[in-house]
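ARCHIVE CARD
Drawer: 12
Card no.: 0347
Subject: one protein chain, sequence and derived structure
Cross-reference: see card 0346
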Amino acid sequence: LDSLLSEIATAISDIAGVSLVAILISNEEDKKLHLSKTSIPKAAETFVETVTGKKIKEIIYPTIDPNNLFTKAIETKTIQKSADVVNALTPLMNPIEAGILVNIVRYQIKLLVVVPMVVNKKVHGVIALGWKQSVLPHTEKAILTTFANQAAIGIENAGYLDQITEQLDQLENKNKHLESINKFTNQIITSLDPEK
């Protein structure tokens, strides 16, 4: 999954020419987005880590505010965009810190675009993009949706793979248990055989 998400982030960055790509995976249990992949300028990464006190990979984005761009993308299952990057970042940091971050990347981000990763009507997370232009063309929306949906399929398949691996482990344990019962049963049978 990690390599798939890396490839998708790189492809989006190359094709769309964006200055920032962040892939956040949703966790239904805690209603938060967990940062999985990112490609942001080093100065921005250092600043975010300093103000949040966390490594960039440890950042968790709450999705409880219905007016937030990320939450809207998840709830509506549609692309959301805004030139107000500060407002979109305030769940992670206070408005002053978000404003400083926006100033660090101001020439690189004109529009924040959030694309939900959807498969089988289930949102598996979002891809957040720092768009270099102030307009998102319709053709780009279609491309971004395709990439996001491919990422969602990969995430869902990785979940299935985890389930299958867990079931295989359980079967192996049960098989070992049955083998030991069989061995024990054979020992009893052998000990009860009057010819031996």
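Annotation on reverse: Residues 138-192 form the longest helix (55 residues). The first strand starts at residue 20 and ends at 27.
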